[in-house]
């Protein structure tokens, strides 16, 4: 009987400690901000200075769209760390790699040379799909990337496109899937140097700090603050994950949306407006 009471006591202590890590004031503000959104939205926020969090549908699975390029980068860095690829390794582009669109790499001529480091830069900075699919293949494919994610404890974050056995779920989530908590946690572990190695994590963070697409969440952060970011967008889903460090603030947040009613591509898209408002709220709160 004493053991039972002890276990119940310890459980209560753990639950209470977890509750204390919630930022209740900010939680209410975020819940109020997202109220009435015409679609499904999930948010996860973590203040890295005191580890307090905000979570709304944080464990719900959402499409990644181009945020999947972070797990793909992880797969490449794993290959580099194993000595199977080199960071500045010369590669030869082939027309067969083209993914139709307006990507920079897709404008290359057949047999042109480019370094692996520049392919990674294009994938993360301009969100080049041709570059990203090439990297996915070089990383060993979606299956291998998913195995790495699984080994790191990520259960919701997966590559679906061009991955055997995931054809049906690709029809639901597209290229990749994740949850706000997992994508933010992946970013946090990169920041802390815990993904693969400190050196590889640092390389990943620098790549993520050069996002060309800076008109949504990033636009609400002062330009002299370091931001590592990856966003993703398809018709029914707009999402973004950020690490923000500067002016006394140090935090990570991820917003994911799906089943969005507004599928426009103008700056006043409802999900993008919400993303900017959330980013502004968090910056002003943490600064």
TrEMBL record:
The record, for Gene3D superfamilies, names: DD-peptidase/beta-lactamase superfamily (3.40.710.10)
Which EC main class describes this enzyme? hydrolase
Q: Name one GO molecular function term.
A: beta-lactamase activity
Q: Where is the Beta-lactamase class A catalytic domain?
A: 42-257
Q: Which SUPFAM superfamilies match?
A: beta-lactamase/transpeptidase-like
- Pfam families, per this entry? Beta-lactamase2 (PF13354)
Entry similarity comment: Belongs to the class-A beta-lactamase family.
State the protein's name: beta-lactamase
Q: Which organism is it from?
A: Flavisolibacter ginsenosidimutans
């Amino acid at each position: 009987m004493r053991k039972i009471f002890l276990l119940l006591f310890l459980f209560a202590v753990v639950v209470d400690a977890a509750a204390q890590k919630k930022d209740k004031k900010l939680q209410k503000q975020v819940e109020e901000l997202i109220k009435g959104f015409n679609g499904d939205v999930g948010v996860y926020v973590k203040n890295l200075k005191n580890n307090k969090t905000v979570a709304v549908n944080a464990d719900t699975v959402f499409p990644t769209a181009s945020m999947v390029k972070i797990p793909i980068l992880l797969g490449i860095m794993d290959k580099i760390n194993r000595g199977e690829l080199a960071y500045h390794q010369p590669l030869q582009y082939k027309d067969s790699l083209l993914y139709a669109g307006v990507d920079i790499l897709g404008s290359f001529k057949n047999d042109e040379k480019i370094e692996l480091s520049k392919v990674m830069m294009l994938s993360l900075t301009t969100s080049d799909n041709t570059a990203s699919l090439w990297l996915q293949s070089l990383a060993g494919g979606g299956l291998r990337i998913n195995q790495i994610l699984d080994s790191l404890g990520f259960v919701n974050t997966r590559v679906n496109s061009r991955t055997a056995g995931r054809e049906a779920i690709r029809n639901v989530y597209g290229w990749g899937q994740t949850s706000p908590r997992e994508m933010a946690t992946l970013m946090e572990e990169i920041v802390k140097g815990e993904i693969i190695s400190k050196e590889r994590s640092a390389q990943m963070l620098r790549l993520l700090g050069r996002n060309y697409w800076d008109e949504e969440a990033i636009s609400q952060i002062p330009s002299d603050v370091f931001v590592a970011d990856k966003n993703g967008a398809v018709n029914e889903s707009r999402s973004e994950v950020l690490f923000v460090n500067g002016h006394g603030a140090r935090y990570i947040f991820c917003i994911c949306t799906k089943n969005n009613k507004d599928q426009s591509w103008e700056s006043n898209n409802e999900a993008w407006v919400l993303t900017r408002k959330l980013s502004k709220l968090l910056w002003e709160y943490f600064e």
